[in-house]
Amino acid sequence: MKKDRPKIPYVDVARQHAPLKRDLLAAVEQVLDQGAFILGPQVAEFEAQFAQLVQVPHAIGVNSGADAMILALRALGIGPGDEVITAVNSFVASASCVALVGAKPVLADVGHDYNIAPAAAAAAITPRTRAIIPVHLTGRPADMDAIMALARKHNLFVIEDAAQSVAAQYRGQPVGSFGDVNAFSLHPLKTLNACGDGGVATTRSAALAEKIQLLRNLGLKTRENCVEWSSNSRLDTLQAAMLLVKLRHLEAWTEQRRANARFYRARLAGVAGVQLPDDPPHLRSVYHTFVVQVDRREKLRDFLLARGVGTQVHYPNPIHLQDCAKELGCKLGDFPVAEAQAKRILSLPVYPELTEAELETVASGVREFFGA
Q1: Phi/psi of residue 52, nearest 5 degrees
Q2: Which of 56, 107, 186, 212 allows an S-S link to 198, with CB 3.0 to 4.6 Å?
Q3: Domain residue spans in the chain?
Q4: pLDDT digits (tens, 9 = 90+) for 73-110
Q5: According to CATH, what is the number of the domain 250-369?
Q6: Cα dist. 141→150, 174, 176, 229, 299 in Å?
């Protein structure tokens, strides 16, 4: 039997699109009329606006966040025999992209903020290490001062996995502007979301930008001259056109997510059994997810669902415990912080379209469960 949809679903993309539908359809109609479906003018315009957002000279639209990461690794010449360090608690794509270019993902434990712990990353460095991939998980920037210092000390590349963190900032500087090449996702559930798949690679290097532009388009330098074997990873013009509409709303959406996080933090402060994410002043977290740690997580999820509130867990199984990671030789107990968090983390609805009454329903449900 199909379960009824929660009255307050964990995500509600349709609610986001309702007030934008006319503008989105007009953008689609423009592309249909012009007929430039592959690398049309909207792609270049979106890339220019995204580069301005991230405050870098170059943004290259590709067909997914995973491909942005793969092309970043390829552009930097990372492949067989190389090792790349990344966070053990991220979505599996952060590590799988490394494996897909023939390199070895090396996992590191995380801190209380769910981001890679610089000391753990340092301990994982070997003579084969070529790069570090910090993941700005939940939309909260990683400790970029420490990560960049570590990279400089050991002559390593930095590739920011900014999939969840469009418009986030570390000490006033946008994420995606620190690393050598950086990867963003525009998946429908991200904070800047396509109506399908999409991604962006960002860089300050003109040479790396040119390389990624080549790699995303079958290695074609011109239509008649292919200079390198590669695949098709172009951002679709239709998606770029709709993303240009959404970019106009990104700042308002981001601030509303942050306001929703403040609401939860105020209403759930002091509730025994609930650990809230902090919000340091030097970070602009964008709350792709609002993650709490709780006792009796599954019982709380059932309790909230019975009251019409949907929740998610990001992510219940750290990468080293995935079947695909067996070849890495890791085992339960190797990453105690991430493993402990995985048992307690819970993502509450935080999307911008939530009303204050809906936020109160969520918060009141958590408070009631814990007897607050």
Answers
A1: -65, -40
A2: 186
A3: 14-247, 250-369
A4: 999 999 999 999 999 999 999 999 999 999 999 999 99
A5: 3.90.1150.10
A6: 16, 9, 10, 35, 31
